[in-house]
Amino acid sequence: MYTQKLHAGAKFPDIKATLTSGEEVSLSSKREECDWKMVVVYRGKHCPICTKYLNALEDFKGRLLEQNIDLIAVSADSKSQLDAHLDDLSISFPIAYGLTEDDMKALGLYISEPRSEKETDHNFAEPALFIINGEGRIQICEIANAPFVRPDLEQLVSGLAFIRDPENSYPVRGTRAY
């Protein structure tokens, strides 16, 4: 099996999803006061590890905003699945549903089939995280094929503070891969 991965420094594709309010949004669009964006792809309501990670991410939202980094989470769940998932989430950042398989492929994500109907009723993306810089390019990406691989949030947010500090002139890393 072959998957086409996005590369560091590449333009983030225009992927749209739907917020709980019903509003369609581009994953890369940023609130007015932010010039960077963090996009967190999670597996869906069926994944307790995702629920734990999203709840932990809430504790870092303020630090991300201090660095002018907007935040959104997205999955392939349906509206009803996301609505049910909200009962287990304690988050205030935007969360969206409706990621399609074509979207997952455009993002270079690993896609899994449910193990049973108890898990979920659709194919879903394995976890991923993208940091999109002010030029709309991928500054950082983490694409996993299992729910157990996630960036440590303290290390990530501290690293972003280092990258965002103009004194450091930190470039996009890993661009020699292509």
- How many distinct folded domains? 1
According to CATH, the fold-level topology is Glutaredoxin
How many H/I helical runs?
5
Termini separation (Å)? 20 Å
Explained architecture:
This protein has 178 residues and is α+β, with helices and mostly antiparallel strands. The protein has one domain: 3-Layer(aba) Sandwich (Glutaredoxin). The chain has helices at 48-58, 61-66, 79-85, 101-106, 153-164, and strands spanning 16-19, 24-26, 36-41, 69-74, 95-97, 111-112, 124-125, 128-132, 138-143. The strands form 2 sheets. It has a 7-stranded mixed β-sheet with strand order 2-1-5-4-3-8-9. A two-stranded antiparallel ribbon has the order 6-7. The model has no long low-confidence stretch (mean pLDDT 93).
Can you give me a brief rundown of this structure?
The protein is of the alpha+beta class and 178 residues long. The chain has helices at residues 48-58, 61-66, 79-85, 101-106, 153-164; strands at residues 16-19, 24-26, 36-41, 69-74, 95-97, 111-112, 124-125, 128-132, 138-143. A hairpin with a 4-residue loop joins strand 1 (16-19) and strand 2 (24-26).
